[in-house]
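request received
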Amino acid sequence: MTATATRAKRPAASPGTPARVRSNIARTPRTFYWMVVPAVVIFFGLHTIPVLSGMFFSLTNYAGYGTWDLVGFSNYINLFQDDRVLNSYGFTFGFAIVSTVLVNVIALAIALGLNSKIKFQAAFRGVFFIPYVLAILIIGYVFNYLFANSFPAIFTALGLPGLSGNLLASPDFAWIGIVITTVWQAAAFNVILYLAGLQTISADLYEAAAIDGASGWRRFRSITFPLIGAYFTINMVLSFKSFLQVFDQIVALTAGGPGTSTESIALVIFRGGFQGGEYGYQMANAVVYLFVIIIVSFLQLRILQRREATFS
Amino acid sequence: MTDTLTSTTAPLPETPDAPPRAPRTRRRLDGGNGGTNWWLTALIAVCSLTVLIPLYFTVVTALKTPDQLGGTGFELPTSIRWENFADAYQLTNFPRALLNTALITVGAVFLTLLTNSLVAYAIARNMHKKFFKGLYFYFLAAIFVPFPIIMLPVVKETALLGLDTPVGLILLYTVYGLSFNIFIFVAYINSIPVELEEAARLDGASTWGVFWKVIFPLLSPMNATVGILTCVWAWNDFLLPLVVLSDPSAQTLPLAQFIFQGQFNTNYPVAFASYLMALAPLLIVYVIAQKWVVSGVTRGSVK
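response:
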């Protein structure tokens, strides 16, 4: 019975707490293995195997049915010459960047407002959080009608005939409608996260800053924003990643149209893979997409966390 | 949109009270005492209209007759047609879709809470072992794998295994939630002192006993957070049911809205009645348990 289990390399919760010495039995009770093994097996089966099999089939000409042959990297080469795929990457990235910036700016602004001295705070917080529990697909159908009928009627009544067309029917501007719908629904969740961050800031800091005569903007720049840096990072990374997977609201708003101007990567994979007999080809698309998302997420984390570090 | 909200205002300095108060470590959320910023209250009220107006619009449209639809659509209904709801109820087979969604959601939440916390506990308490540390990063890495990658293969696989059913969906939600939930649970379990478990062990509790009697009850706050996130995700999800479910009678609420798009034709009031009925259950739950939901999600993010 030698206590080998004392090498718990856990980051100390806070400076000053001594590293915990685990004095229980030396070997791991077998029960711990029983706790994780079934989950690992099922996770491997339903998550890792699909990823690996998808990678394999990206090297074939499999249509999704029938026989297939290995074709090497020709799917990957074709991807880069496929306008529809390239367009979907352009649209998805443009959409995700604009939506991420808007959602975070708006959510942070609302959270700041909700966190200051206003009346009916709890009620307003409740209202701003409503969209989080609504299905984005159905919200998409509601906004679809608004863009097609209500907004044109309102702009016509306001004497702005230039804006009286259906936003979603325009190949150049339909993406704006998708952004508006997405921001409306996604801001709610980010408001809550930012509010949580803001409530960790001590009021004394603001009082001290006020005594020093710091203006509102200065207080935001020098106290608030640095102190919620971690929340900003996690919100930016998670919202960007989820917007790169955009699917539901596009189905409800434009179905990828007009033409293919608002087809997202997920929609192209879905259509080509399930309806277009391009299983192998779309798997190649999906593999490229996986690497793109991983690279982008890590770049984001590195850049944003470095920014955090310079503040603290 | 609310882009106009660029002038972020920091809270006003407090008006000093006569008796010195103990220094507060947290700003209160009840508006404090005096010094209410009415200008900001008005601004927030205007912004909250951007949330409320589309909801109001959905409700009034669902109550109209088709001939009242002209104009901007924001006008109040002149005569209310309750049959819209009855039509939508029959057309989308609402009770069946509601039951399917409820079963899948309850099953997913139940199984997730039961299993994910258990896996997280085993990992958190054995992080010093290569095997468990490796597992931790293996699960975490999956956070960066977007669903469209596994969409095509997983549909083939679920069809093969006979998991193209609500039961299969419950399993998929439980498995795909694992990465993120383990991340949350492990961080939380690390903050629970090991001494509690050791005391229980000395009293003769097994590892299982320690988990169910000591740890699981202590996880209640995180269970609430994970439960809410899983519930909202499973209830509103569209893509996974769309590709996995093979039996039309297993439709979920969002799926039913998608499938009946063509059948609403241009009868928008019936369509909107259907949307409203699909949105209502979670909305009602949210209104009743609003405080609890908001604090649950907040707790999960304060790390």
